[in-house]
Design a protein that fits this description.
By secondary structure, this protein is an alpha+beta fold. It contains five helices and 16 strands. The protein folds into two domains: 42 residues; 239 residues, Jelly Rolls, CATH 2.60.120.620.
């Protein structure tokens, strides 16, 4: 009888240990899943570490730098400004340094040609009065400076470098413009490589004395709420507008979070009234864009 009782006790202990071990494994598995999906996070020992995908953290990450560091890089204070949710649009102030802007302009100047637009029926480039600027393309990953800029764009948008097209450099002289248009495609030809255009990063390489704004005529919101409203041209006051400033970068999304096309992303380049406008465009695709 004593041996039988001891056997039962040992059996119960063994069952309890197995149950506890199984529960620990299940608990560990659940914790790993929660960490993987970002639902649960491990506290950091530093209170200053930025949170993933936190625009405010990205915007303010360089504010505490010394003035000497900012002067060495040729940039002022860097911060991100949310200007619209329909379309989703953000301005990253001082995204590029003055030296980077000048480098891109000088690299593109010898190769500038009249800008074209994409024919929605054939998918081919064609001349149009809709777009009166001149431009050229710089191959993705062409040199270290361009690779650094493209990496910065990927960090800003959370879209891999490999999903981006080559940089397009554009030059608008007085009177030149780009009529309202979408950056997404309505044909199948242009989506074969990389799929649909999901977002655009428009970098301003020069200051403009008057005109040349990027305007979103179909945007929803209080257009006059932007702090630069009084400095806009008449064209710029026809919607939500961004006034070009050397080094600033405008990110806007051509697709909604549900992957549908966003008609509020309709945008235009207002005519330059005084000065010269230089800009650089990076289009981002849903999938990898093969160069």
């Amino acid at each position: 009888m004593v041996k039988q009782r001891n056997s039962r006790v040992a059996s119960r202990k063994s069952s309890s240990s197995t149950l506890v071990f199984t529960m620990l494994i299940m608990f560990t598995f659940v914790i790993l899943i929660l960490l993987g999906f970002g639902i649960l996070s491990i506290p950091s020992s530093s209170n200053d570490s930025p949170k993933a995908h936190d625009l405010n953290s990205i915007a303010r990450k360089t504010i505490e730098r010394s003035e000497e560091e900012e002067e060495e890089e040729g940039r002022g204070e860097q911060w991100v400004e949310v200007i619209s949710w329909e379309p989703r649009a953000f301005v990253y102030h001082n995204f590029l340094s003055k030296e980077e802007c000048e480098y891109l302009i000088n690299l593109a100047k010898p190769h500038m040609q009249k800008s074209t637009v994409v024919d929605s029926e054939t998918g081919k480039s064609t001349d149009s009065r809709v777009r009166t600027s001149s431009g050229t393309f710089l191959q993705r990953g062409r040199d270290k400076i361009i690779r650094d800029i493209e990496k910065r764009i990927a960090d800003f948008t959370f879209i891999p470098v490999e999903h981006g097209e080559g940089l397009q450099i554009l030059h608008y002289e007085v009177g030149q413009k780009y009529e309202p248009h979408f950056d997404y495609f309505m044909d199948e030809f242009n989506t074969r490589n990389g799929g649909q255009r999901i977002a655009t990063v428009l970098m301003y390489l020069s200051d403009i004395e008057e005109g040349g704004e990027t305007v979103f005529p179909a945007a929803k919101g209080n257009f006059s709420a932007v702090p630069w409203w009084d400095e806009l041209s008449e064209c710029g006051k026809n919607g939500l507008s961004v006034k070009p400033k050397m080094g600033d970068a405008l990110l806007f999304w051509s697709m909604k979070p549900d992957a549908s096309l966003d008609p509020s992303s309709l945008h235009a380049g207002c005519p330059v009234i005084k000065g010269n406008k230089w800009s650089s465009t990076k289009w981002m695709r849903v999938n990898e864009y093969k160069v």
